[in-house]
């Protein structure tokens, strides 16, 4: 199954899903994956996200920090 990533907003009464996304690692071209809000579950219809909002994932094979 493709990786599934969910981002949550923690609240006192629990947590609220902000967005979710699934992708196939075979489609990655390099260590970065940038997705527009219209490519994220829930975010595309959430008025809190500007139309030009993006989320960037940075992948690494180890614990070292990636600059940028």
From TrEMBL:
Signal sequence span per UniProt?
none
What PROSITE patterns does the entry give? C2_TENSIN
Write down the superkingdom of origin: Eukaryota
| Gene Ontology CC annotation, any one | focal adhesion
Question: SUPFAM superfamilies under this entry?
Answer: C2 domain (Calcium/lipid-binding domain, CaLB)
Boundaries of every C2 tensin-type domain copy: 1-62
State the InterPro entries in the record.
Answer: C2_domain_sf, Tensin_C2-dom, Tensin_PTEN_phosphatase
Q: Which GO molecular function terms does the record list?
A: protein tyrosine phosphatase activity
A Pfam family annotated for this chain is PTEN_C2
Quote the protein name from its UniProt record. TNS2 protein
Identify the species of origin. Horornis vulcanius
């Amino acid at each position: 199954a493709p990786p599934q990533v969910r981002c949550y907003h923690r609240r006192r009464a629990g947590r609220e899903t902000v967005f979710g996304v699934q992708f196939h690692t075979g489609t990655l071209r390099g260590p970065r994956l940038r997705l527009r809000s219209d490519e994220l579950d829930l975010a595309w219809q959430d008025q809190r996200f500007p139309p030009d909002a993006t989320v960037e994932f940075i992948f690494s094979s180890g614990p070292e920090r990636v600059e940028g």
